[in-house]
Amino acid sequence: MRLPAARGPVTATLFARLTRPPEHRPIPLDPARTDGSPAGDVLADADVQLALFACYELHYQGFDDVDDRWEWEPALLAARAALERRFEEALARAVPRPALDGSQGVRRALVELVAADDGPSLSGFLARRADLSQFREFVIHRSIYHLKEADPHTWAIPRLAGGPKAALVEIQADEYGGGRRERMHSELFRATMRGLGLDDSYGAYLDRVPGVTLAISNVMSLFGLHRRLRGALAGHLAALEMTSSLPNRRYGDALRRLGGDAGAVRFYDEHVQADAVHEQIAAHDLCAGLAAACPSLAGDVLYGAACALELERRWAGHVLACWERDTTSLAGPPGDGHAA
Questions:
Q1: Considering only CA atoms, which of 62, 55, 66, 80 is closest in space to residue 19?
Q2: Helix (H) or strand (E) holding 138
């Protein structure tokens, strides 16, 4: 993967530096704060979210045109910290911290938080009304995370201990296919992409997705790369697992309705079964266990779950609003996402 095209002044400045050898000079990536202009909706700002995504990607598979030494370059870490402050402030404005009744327990609080979520049902639209072009758009959005599925949450493994650590390892082992490449969820998703005629290479559609899609991936990296946010990362994972089985059943039904073969649909069918188990492990053994071992993290667990639900709601709202207007939900030049 190479660096994508810049989306504005922040990414233009960042990418110009990243394509040169690392140097110990400050990288000014926060123009909205230095020039006095309003911060705007950071959660949907493609320029800010792509810049943050690129900073985080250096901790994953990196970019072919970026020197790996940038990963721990102090100047870049300082610039990333400025972007993260804006991101965390935007999350704090958008996501009130859920109240936790001491007698309620974290598991029950997670169940009630998920049950109260009233976000738009993208899975329902896909199951009943979507055409093949819209389903392919949906898959392009999801490719930003699913092609590295599980990696952001794996950062928490060395930061946990005892039962919560074992619970997370159990979940992640399934995500990585029990050590078999062909069963890794990221590989199953590649099969889905190929079945839809899409480019299954890592990051192929980074230029095509809007800021709100990037924010979904970035919040996982934010929580995963900071030990102080390990409780939020656990709650985030629990929210994903607890809201996965039914939507994935609908996604699979939608793709079958649209002519997808068994290989293309397998990713969704796998999640229907696996996540029904994972949600119990994540809510009880991981989150409730972590809160019992570290009571100060209980509120963070619920906050991480709330952030996952809120960003998902915003993303689904964006996609459905575009489709109701009969326009693409993707960014960049017109096109249906077929591989070149």
A1: 66
A2: helix 132-146
Q: Is the distance from CB of 255 to CB of 265 less than 8 angstroms?
A: yes
Question: pTM here?
Answer: 0.94
Ranges under pLDDT 70 in the chain = 30-40, 102-104, 333-340
The neighbour count for residue 99, using CB atoms within 10 Å, is: 9
Q: 133-164 b/e with 16+ CB inside 10 Å = b?
A: ebbbbbbbbbbbbbbbbbbbbbbbeebbeebb
The residue behind tokens 């890592």 is: 202
Q: Where are the domains of the chain?
A: 9-94, 106-324
Instruction: Give domain 106-324's CATH architecture.
Output: Up-down Bundle (1.20)
Provide, for the chain, the percentages of residues in helix, strand and coil under a 3-state DSSP scheme, each rounded to the nearest 5: 70, 0, 30
d(CA 10, CA 248): 36
State the pLDDT at residue 36. 37
pLDDT, position 35: 37
